[in-house]
Amino acid sequence: MPRLHSLVWLLFLPACALADLPRFEPQNGLQAQVLQQGDGYVLQQPDGSRIELSIPEGNEVDAAPGFEVDDYDFDGHPDLAIRVPVGMVNSSYHLYLYRPDRQGFEHLHMPEALLDRANCGELSELQAKPAERALYSHCRSGPRWYYDAYRFDASGTPWLYKTLQVRHHDPDAPVFFHVFERTLDPYGKVIASRALDDGDQPVSWSVPSARLYLHARPDASSRSKAYLIAGDVCEVLDQQGDWLMIRYLSRKGPLERWVSLDEAYSRP
Questions:
Q1: Which one of 24, 109, 176, 235 has the lowest number of neighbouring Cβ atoms within 10 Å?
Q2: In a domain? residue 252
Q3: Residue 185 domain-assigned (yes or no)
Q4: Whether 26 contacts 32, CB under 8 Å
Q5: Vertex 132 angle, CA 117 and 113, to 5°
Q6: H/E stretch holding 5
Q7: Residue 61 structural domain
């Protein structure tokens, strides 16, 4: 009789309540499943053991979390993400990564030192991009969206791969680019940079002067004999005060050099 009552209870559960709890294969022939246990949730691992899932804090304490399955660390095995809404447009995520050597899942704890360097103080609005092997975290603050991208080393530890840097406007600069995407190596060194517009698209700049000399560094003593002419279109890579680092597609290939805005706009 108790079993009959259980079956009847299951039949009258909303369809979404059952469908939203994923069952998936982290490895061929091995099963994992999210189960509701009381007011919380557990993840049943391939060996039958269960781990209690940590649910992010969201807008509503009693709201049911969302569950998503994807390969977030790009090791060829699906992982589990738990998502809850935070604020008006953001979401907070907790990740459980599958470790094939242990045939079990591990809660990913993002190092505080890593999040301190990122725009988003937690994992938010996640998007896995396999072509880059990068996990993007998006968050909105004020009028724009920000993002950070993470890669994982051989041990499965995340490191900051890309991030946005937003600068305050400089009214004294003849032109000013306020958003830059920085690409970093695993040690935190910036290895590439580019200016972006409000739609996160690369920014171009046209040379305004008849002749604009190229520099190896952002200082006058590094001027070369090469120059651009009025109307040449460049991609903006960086800005340091009155100096722009640009990429110009010449007939011999792309050139990455510095130019003086004082020279470009004939400023004394």
A1: 109
A2: no
A3: no
A4: yes
A5: 15
A6: helix 2-11
A7: 16-166
